[in-house]
Amino acid sequence: MGHEARGHEELELLLPWYVNGTLEAAERAALDDHLAGCPRCRAELAREEGLAAALRAAEDVAPAPHPAQLARLLSRLDGEPRAERPPRRRPAAHLAALWAGTPRPVRWAVAAQTLLVLALAAATGWRAGGADPARETAAVETGGAEFRTLADTASETPAAAPAGAARLRVLFAEETSARAVRAILERVGGRIVDGPSPLGVYTVEVPAGPAADPLEVVLDHLRAQPEVRFAGEAAGGGT
Amino acid sequence: MLAAMPAQDERSLLQRVAARDRKAFEALYHLYYRRLFGYVFKLTRRPELVEEVVNDVLLAVWQGAGRFDGRSRPSTWVFGIAYHKALKALARAGVRAGAVEEDRVAAEPVDPEGPESLMARRELQSVLGRALATLSPEQRAVVEMTYVYGCSYQEIAAAIGCPVNTVKTRMFHARRKLRDLLPGLGVSSHGG
């Protein structure tokens, strides 16, 4: 009894660190003793455990870093005034590598999607430098029929973006969940304004202008996502 | 959460950063970015400040890694830097450090066009988020470091540079306030 009166206030202060398991052994033992005889502190302990659990459960507010952020920060390490852009991904090389590394039975499926990508590239005026073996192979193997279909689809949606916004066309890998699509677009402040088209193409509006990330950075970020098969500026959508 | 990587590994990472190893810095960046983002967001509750503060903290780590004396866990040191940078950013933004911001609860800036993530917005609007908003940034820092990052009160005192008794009483006042605002906590989790 006397022991309880002596320690209550001091020990009550320590409860949070009893909950998180960082008290030193002597303090912990003293609290164990105290808790056995103090219903108030036991109730308080239960509340603190509830609070700790609630706080940890809410601990998903942080997005993964935007690759452009790291690039900017790295450029600041040396005191450079401006960020270097992350190296631009060469789409042709990427597609060729994808093709070469794909088992034969899967190639036909890949070819169809490759065509979507290439057609989108054509529709949005996105040009890869140099020869494009993937394009040639894919076109030969499927006869180019889907190429036209997609090009038509891609140019169907009116591309006029309101002031302060730009429109992109984005194609995700087939197995990408709606949640993943939302998460990826959220990180670039993107809003789906149309789609998916029958071929799975979304038209996405992103912030543009001096306060927004440069479109190049946004596109680089999207293209760096494994789920994104293609991202390009919508043709005619505010250059 | 602070123990996401053995402290010894983080120490050697910091040593490499001190030796200007950019790859080590990138590893540290990935190791800390989300934790720092969450911490700074919770502390400041100003989504528009978070990214800049996190970058400043990581830059300070790059510049100051050589001064890390190895007596604390590396994470405690990093979070100490984040604490001070976040309070400074709040002061610059015109929020009086140490002020208990009861009046801000209703006016919590949940800007639908803001750059923050949807998840961050949701957190701000939640019951827990609103309760946390009634605490001072200093109180929130202690609550976060204790319950989310698993720091001892001695570590918190060392990180934010104040006596251990201040840490305990800050936590105590925060608990009082949260208890009144979140009466349902702990009711079902413990019989006794």
Descriptive overview:
The complex is a heterodimer of chains A (239) and B (192). By secondary structure, chain A is of the alpha+beta class. Chain A contains 10 helices and 4 strands; from the N terminus they run H-H-H-H-H-H-H-H-E-H-E-E-H-E. Chain A has helices spanning 2-19, 25-37, 39-57, 67-77, 91-100, 104-123, 133-142, 145-156, 178-187, 215-224, and strands at 165-172, 191-194, 201-207, 228-233. Chain A has a 4-stranded antiparallel beta sheet with strand order 2-3-1-4, with helices on both faces. In chain A, helix 1 (2-19) runs parallel beside helix 3 (39-57). The termini of chain A are far apart. The model of chain A is unreliable at 1-6, 80-91 and 125-157 (pLDDT under 50). By secondary structure, chain B is an all-alpha fold. Helix content of chain B is 65%, strand content 0%. Chain B contains 9 helices and no strands. In chain B, helix 1 (7-18) crosses helix 2 (22-44), helix 2 runs antiparallel to helix 3 (47-64) and helix 3 packs across helix 4 (74-92). Residues 97-116 and 188-192 of chain B have low confidence and may be disordered. At the A-B interface, helix 1, helix 3 and helix 4 of A face helix 2, helix 3, helix 5, helix 7 and helix 9 of B.
Q: Brief overview, please?
A:
Chain A has 239 residues and is α+β, with helices and mostly antiparallel strands. Chain A contains 10 helices and 4 strands; from the N terminus they run ααααααααβαββαβ. In chain B, α1 crosses α2 and α2 crosses α7.
Q: How many strands, what sense, and barrel or not for the largest sheet of chain B?
A: none
Number of helices of chain B: 9
Measured between the Cα atoms of the first and last residue of chain B, the distance is 28 Å
Chain-averaged pLDDT of chain B? 81
Shape of chain A: elongated
Give the topology string of chain B: H per helix, E per strand: HHHHHHHHH
Structural category of chain B = mainly alpha
How large, in whole angstroms, is the Cα Rg of chain A?
28 Å
The gyration radius over C-alpha positions of chain B equals 17 Å
Give the helix proportion of chain B (percent range). Answer: 55-70%
Q: State which percent range the strand residues of chain B make up.
A: under 5%
Distance between the termini of chain A: 79 Å
